[in-house]
Amino acid sequence: MRVLITGGAGFIGANLCAYLTGFPGVRAVVALDDLSTGDAANLAGTSAEFVEGSILDRPLVAELVAAADTVVHLAARPSVPMSLADPVASHEVNASGTLNVLEACRRNGMHVILASSSSVYGDIAMSPKHEDLATRPLSPYGASKLAAEAYALAYGTAFEVPVLPLRFFNVYGPLQSAEHAYAAVVPAFVDAALRGEPVTVFGDGEQTRDFTYVGTVVRVLADAAWRRVVSDTPVNLAYGSRVTVNELAVMLGEVLGTPLVTRHIAARIGDVRHSQAACERLTRLFPNVDPVPLADGLKHTVAWFDRTLNSVGNV
Ligand code: NAD
């Protein structure tokens, strides 16, 4: 099997490249990435072939898709704040870029797994969020992800493209960047705590998140690629945990052996209050994947940040 991973030099993409290196039956892994938020160094130690380029380059996408057996489409402008700063750029990459990938898949009858997001639900009150709920994105990012999964489902219906649209929730783990202004909560907390700095909490910290360790996500993606899993509805990729940001800070303090010092600032525009997945569809499609518990995932994540900070400090 030859797997094309768009966004392959990013956090989730590079973890998937590493997991697929040595996966029985995988002959080649190709990572297409424009390095806008990813880093080619993330692919060190994997056997992935790196192609620097954009999903907006249609001839390039067509060539790479034609040479693959399955596509995992992760490339995106991946955050709410980026989409608030430049909504059109988010639309171009996340919606139009996805359309380019789907067009190439249509011409090749290619199986494609794609990353949508829990942000499509917006702030609808019902929890956990099951996939049949109405969608109400609060940000251009959420709207662009909804467009991407809607196109995927339409290509499945209209052209019989084998598609699997997965709604990722809060994924965390090694290789996740803490370095930019839009860092996700786990890397931001771990990085600050290891540097002995206070961690910044947006709002009162009682907002809840459904955290999924990246090792669990890549197992689902690899299994989906290997068995060519398809779905004619979106599928949540999270296991239904409900953890407040304040609780996360306490758990990280326990892993680190010292309580975190927190600093509260105003809540962010576009952030949802509660985010928890219904996971029945996921567990029915992937009965063999056991999610890594949060406490274990946090230990792996802290260990990776610790090693990275120490090696930077030793240069
Ligand atoms: P990431 O930023 O690390 O990865 C995205 C990758 O896409 C980056 O390497 C970036 O350089 C690349 N990219 C951006 N524009 C591109 C383009 N035009 N052409 C080619 N490559 C391009 O983010 P991630 O957390 O690994 O996210 C992967 C996917 O999962 C994204 O689609 C994101 O929207 C989705 N997602 C992630 C989370 C999460 O918690 N991490 C939650 C919901 C959805």
How is this structure best summarized?
This protein is an alpha/beta fold and 315 residues long. It has 2 domains: 2-171 and 214-237, NAD(P)-binding Rossmann-like Domain (Rossmann fold, 3-Layer(aba) Sandwich), CATH 3.40.50; 172-209 and 241-278 and 292-310, UDP-galactose 4-epimerase, domain 1.
Give a written overview of the molecule.
It is a single chain. The protein folds into 2 domains: 2-171 and 214-237, NAD(P)-binding Rossmann-like Domain (Rossmann fold, 3-Layer(aba) Sandwich), CATH 3.40.50; 172-209 and 241-278 and 292-310, UDP-galactose 4-epimerase, domain 1, CATH 3.90.25.10. A 7-stranded parallel sheet has the order 3-2-1-4-5-6-11, sandwiched between helices. It is of the alpha/beta class and 315 residues long. The protein starts with a strand and ends with a helix. Helix 6 crosses helix 10. It contains 10 helices and 13 strands. The mean pLDDT is 95. It binds nicotinamide-adenine-dinucleotide. Nicotinamide-adenine-dinucleotide is lined by residues 6-7, 9-13, 32-38, 54-56, 74-78, 93, 97, 115, 117, 168, 170-171, 184.
